[in-house]
Amino acid sequence: MSLDNLITFRKELHAHPELSGQERATSQRIIRELKKCKPSQIIENLGGHGVAAIYDTGNPGKTILFRADTDALPIQETNTFAHKSIYDGVSHKCGHDGHTAMLVGLAQKLHRQPFNKGKIILLFQPAEEIGIGARAVLEDPKFEALQPDYVFALHNVPGYPKGQIVCRTGTFNPAAISLVIKLQGKKAHAAQQENGRNPDQAIAVIITKVHELQNYDLASEDFLKFTTIFTRIGSPDYGISPGDGELHYTFRSWTKAKLEAAKSKIVQIIETITTQHQLSYTIDWIYYFAASHNDAFAAQCVEQSALKNNFSYHNKPYPFQWGEDFGLFTEKYPGAMFGLGAGEDTPALHHVDYDFPDDIILYGIKTFYGIAEKVYNSGEMHNR
Ligand SMILES: [Zn+2]
Ligand SMILES: [Zn+2]
């Protein structure tokens, strides 16, 4: 299959986006293309609608896993091109259609130019956007037999030159988590709010105190960023002094340990302030994304592959700030995530007019293939 066919496939995915956890037709399209590339094995329904293609040479050697994500977003597309989403309110605004097409392209390359040792796993992972797909795949009993030695993934990054490879050793993107704080006081007549317990002041103080925890210094190990997502007190019923309220946050830090420390601090703040204001509370922690940690050897393979392919390489001084559930893989296996420049003028990820730039497809395929070459050529030196 030529690049033209890969682009056609990418546009077919773009026109038929499916939300996280619902990637049924997408997985069928992936399997249809994979069958043409004759892998040793195809595993279906992996952690939901996940698919894995395995290229096993039958010879000893490392097992290398490459991951693409496959889900789309609940965003109404504003683009009007021929391959625009046929579904209202759902579209590929993170380029997962492109990531999927690149991994299918890698399957084609492995079919044409197989390695002579080891095993390569191409994982098409569902439900990345809601942070549950990686866990579901890792916990699927069908994944147990796979056990990779190294794991790799890429994400396209608008704002960087097309085809530039962006990587670093250490944290690649942060640990992130969201939380819902619910406060319960006591309703009263609006004229007699002193007879109730209105959570308004507690919420005002919590917002201020949480802001004081922020550390925007990207170079600092203690980087910590809170984003207030939503807040509410009572309801627009003007005769009532409200007795309940809520606050929703997302926050991120470079490591799991720092994230845990921040969680304790916020619990302490809530505890203190709700006690002072005689309120009860609940906290729900949701949407946890593990930090992606890049192993030094794996990151070196990414860099060497980029250089061997004559691609521009950028060693990123600080991690990216977005969450990515590939972190769960690097918690378990050595590996690396890297960025693939999507063009300085390409709209940002998750924006209504974003579209994956097809001219970076070959960069992704060649970088992945080159990484496998590097791992196999230096395998003896890096026995784990
Ligand atoms: Zn996304
Ligand atoms: Zn994404």
Ordered list of secondary-structure elements with their pairings:
Layout (H helix, E strand, L loop, with lengths): L2 H13 L8 H12 L5 E6 L3 E7 L6 E7 L26 H17 L6 E7 L7 H7 L10 E8 L7 E3 L2 E4 L1 E10 L3 E2 L10 H13 L11 E10 L6 E2 L2 E10 L2 H21 L3 E10 L2 E3 L1 H13 L4 E3 L11 H6 L2 E7 L19 H17 L7
Parallel strand pairs: 3-4, 3-5, 5-16, 6-15
Antiparallel strand pairs: 1-2, 2-4, 6-16, 7-14, 8-12, 8-13, 9-11, 10-12
The protein binds zinc ion (2 copies).
Task: Give a concise summary.
The protein has 384 residues and is α/β, with parallel strands linked by helices.
Features:
384 residues; alpha/beta; Aminopeptidase; Alpha-Beta Plaits; 2 domains; eight-stranded mixed beta sheet; 31% helix; elongated; binds zinc ion
CATH architecture descriptor name of the largest domain: 3-Layer(aba) Sandwich
Strand order, main sheet: write it out: 1-2-4-3-5-16-6-15
The share of residues in helices is 25-40%
Round the Cα radius of gyration to an integer and report it: 23 Å
- CATH class of the largest domain equals Alpha Beta
Number of helices: 9
The residue-averaged pLDDT reads: 96
Order of helices and strands: HHEEEHEHEEEEEHEEEHEEHEHEH
Bound molecules: zinc ion
As for the CATH topology of the largest domain, it is Aminopeptidase
Q: What is the H level of CATH, i.e. the homologous superfamily of the largest domain?
A: Zn peptidases
- Give the N-to-C terminal Cα separation: 36 Å
Name the quaternary structure.
single chain
Largest β sheet strand count, sense and barrel closure = 8 strands, mixed
Structurally, the number of domains stands at 2
